[in-house]
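Repro case for the chain-ordering regression, as requested:
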Amino acid sequence: KNEVEQSPQNLTAQEGEFITINCSYSVGISALHWLQQHPGGGIVSLFMLSSGKKKHGRLIATINIQEKHSSLHITASHPRDSAVYICAGGHYGGSQGNLIFGKGTKLSVKP
Amino acid sequence: NAGVMQNPRHLVRRRGQEARLRCSPMKGHSHVYWYRQLPEEGLKFMVYLQKENIIDESGMPKERFSAEFPKEGPSILRIQQVVRGDSAAYFCASSSDRRRLSFGPGTRLTVT
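-- result from build under test --
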């Protein structure tokens, strides 16, 4: 069983819709990363968070430590947001980049 | 300020040959991480290095794989005697202390 579980696996939205991607993780994970992998394969780190909420442009990431759950929200979605979104957890005491990755959520935003 | 550089971007090797993948971290970043993404699978951590030191190699296969980050020059991930199962995308990332990771564009290795 993977220690980081994402849902949904696939998501199709119309341009302008509000999108939520969920990530649940197991005990011992101290920091959560959200990554975006473009259709061409390149990876961009969107957020790293261990508590609360972070916002960058139309993207918002939240984490609930008690429930071991994180969400990535995209407001006013656009076709250029189409990508695979990956959450990844780092363990307490582990090296920062030693991450357990979710399987990803493939988002397709239609014009 | 150039991002993380990886080369080559695509590498084709026959079974039994050696593959060398290079990663130059962002300027000012002293931490380098290597990850592997097998076809249709998720990313997996392989190894974490700082200059001249391997810090965490818990994700490295026990045989044929090695990594280094010398005092001068890029980090190198070396795969000896490649097999078809090594075909994957290999990403490196770098960071400064406790900051967000910056990923390279990846090297796509194909073993024929």
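Ordering looks correct now. The radius of gyration of chain B is 13 Å.
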